[in-house]
Write a structure and sequence with these properties.
- The complex is a heterodimer.
- Chain A is about 35% helix and about 20% strand.
- Chain A is α+β, with helices and mostly antiparallel strands.
- In chain A, α1 (about 40-50) packs antiparallel against α3 (about 85-95), α1 (about 40-50) crosses α4 and α3 packs across α4 (about 100-110).
- Chain A is globular.
- Mean pLDDT of chain A is about 95; it is low at about 260-265.
- By secondary structure, chain B is of the alpha/beta class.
- Chain B has 17 helices and 23 strands.
- In chain B, strands 3-2-7-20-21-22-23 form a seven-stranded mixed β-sheet, with helices on one face. Chain B has a six-stranded parallel β-sheet with strand order 11-12-13-14-15-19. A four-stranded mixed β-sheet of chain B has the order 5-4-1-6, with no helix packed on it.
- In chain B, α6 links the parallel β12 (about 190) and β13.
- In chain B, α1 (about 75-85) runs parallel beside α15 (about 425-440).
- Chain B is globular.
- Classes of the chains: A alpha+beta, B alpha/beta.
- The interface between A and B is medium-sized, with 28 and 29 residues.
Amino acid sequence: MNGTAAGVRVGVMVRRLDDGHTLTTEPDLVLPLASVGKVLLLGEVARRLTDGTLAADQPIELLGADRQLGGTGLLGLLSPRQYTVADLATAVAAVSDNAATNALLRVVTLDAVRDLARRAGLLHTTVHDRIRAARGPDVPATFATGTARELCAFLADVAAGTWQSPAACALLQQWLAGNTDRALVADTIDHDPWSTDGVLVLNKTGTDTGVRADAGIVFGRHTVVYAVIAAFESGAERAAVAELRRWGTVVDGLAGTGAHRSESS
Amino acid sequence: MARLDLLVTGGDVLDGTGSPARAADVGVRDGRLVLLPPQSRTPAVQVVDAAGLVVTPGFIDVHTHSDLLAGDDPQREVLRGAPLRQGVTTEICGNCGISPFPVPPERSGPVGELIAATFGPPAASYASFPEFAAAQGVARRNHLAALVGHGTLRAAVVGFAQRRATPDEIRRMGELLDGALAAGAAGLSTGLIYSPGVNAGTDEVIALARVAAAHGKPYVTHLRDEMSQVESALEEAIEIAAAAGSALQVSHHKTAGRRAWGATVRTLARLDRARAEGLDVTCDVYPYTAGSTALHAMLPPWVIADGVPAMLAAIAEPAVRERIRADIVAGVPGWENTVGNGGWDLIRVASAPNSPNVQGHTIAELAAAAGTDPVHYACALLVAERGDVTILSHSMHEDDVRRVLASPLTMLCSDGVPKPGRPHPRWAGSFTRVLGHYVRDVGLLSLAEAVHKMTAMPARRFGLRDRGLLADGYAADLVVFDPQRVADGATYDDPLAAPRGVRCVVVAGEIVVDGDDVTDARPGRVLAVPDREPAGRDRP
């Protein structure tokens, strides 16, 4: 039993890095991540760009299939057929762009993203497939799955600059800071998403049928990482969103927002 | 108008909302209230002349330990009468993490030890809320609502081990809690200084508070520390409620021990801030500067980690007593350490059934008289009493008590521990002490504010949806008292002395206290509290 609003299951971890103070609810529950899984793709792109095996200005073609995916994103609706790797990564981070996600997955490969997750110590958190408009019986049931604990462990390393390389961490942080979706956990974290002053929230959200998820890093008076994943039955979307926003108040409390940022940020 | 069962006429009505008094008659028909114009002369079977008196909703005591007070013996009868004579028409028990249900029958042995040490023997435990309600609802004069104690859940599922619960154990505790709440229990309580609740991490409590939230019922907590670490303990409670989505009730709020005196300035401000951020948080208080709890709660938590029998065996050992002595001097991380914060001279024995001569004396006095040291004396007394020793701890500052009592976030409680001996006078005096001393004599509160804290505010907090107000159709629980005379009679030396100035008390339309007399009417019952919509706090 998950003891929450009817029809919503959650996996949650919130960790203040300064002192390790951690709050959880079923942090080891493996749940669908929806587009939060794109964090791993962005990680692989950041790794390749910073170790020199991929160039930020390399042009990438969007296929017709990419453009026709629908769902979240913008590039499929714009005129250009070609973008740089950096453009695509920015689009994935900022608007969870599905067309850009599949184009980047073709470049770096799904296997490489899965290897990155394994190397980062993630046993249950991974990407299973590219983005699909519809999922039949012959393809993985979902884009990505994972646990709140593992997402937090990964983000803690990224926040501390200890994952992969400081440059890769900095690049991934920069992309996540540009996310425009602050409607879930970040909604109740006291910050100005359009300002680089004060409290900073770096996050990736996921929205799919029956899933709302948000994972991120908050640089306030203290540095906090969080992952909140809600899987819900039809009709429970509002309860799920309320659950994520409520956890935002917990994150806010641990980060000690109020226009301060720690020296470590 | 059809004849009423009861008419209270000529009084000033304080309706529980906090509004000023107004002249009105109050009628009762079929156990429900009918509000009438003043001097209505409505025909009634029974008439109470309330001229010069105040008529209010029956008082709700939000924090008691009166879970197991049913029974025929004269001592229990006296104890049951103490709140009733003050106008308490509903008691809310199951506090501080210990309730006598839900205890699966196969766990009634070890959990029974905990229950006996808390409420006094004989140990009675019930597998479910309905079984509890059936047993404790017999021949009651007033009503009883009950919280589910987290310590009881933990004792039933995990036992007394000093370790975190596994996910499966948390799930099983959640299932027991879910069943009890669905059946009518009023919320979840914790006592995070007491074994076995002290062994729980924050996440375990979040998981269980989520279950309470799903029923729209509050998380009620005796904080992990009410002394020097009270602020971090309060922060934990706020985190738990915020994460769980539950309402939060901070029990008997205090900042005790000299190092924490004055901290209510900050804790009340923190509660205000949490409310401003969207958390439904309130607290309660009893109007005394002394607390009361079990003597074994003065010892380091490892002493009772394995339950009462193991504790009694251990504290007979000189080496264990030496370790206790050292821990009280040095402290143990995460432990409140009342004696280390105050001293044995502030710990007075309230109840020790087999040693009545020690009741009323401090441990320091008793040890000196016996020519031994206080730790040795306390351990020997616990062994002699099989763990069942209740103490008073003179640990609070009057300014803090007044500050909490005056806060608009605070409702009133007794935290009464109705046991024989010399119990804390709060059981028999809290409500009338506020009305007499703090309202009339000190002027800390208006009478309307005080009555609000005793009626509508607690009814709303605990989901007693047709109580706490004088309004048409509400349950006919009433108090009629003289605001110029009302006063507590209970003292530390005479802890069950009756209050003064209460004219009559009505439960479910029947007069249960008539002047100085408790009547034979038995209209009370155990209340099953229905679920409410989950708090569903979307955004602040």
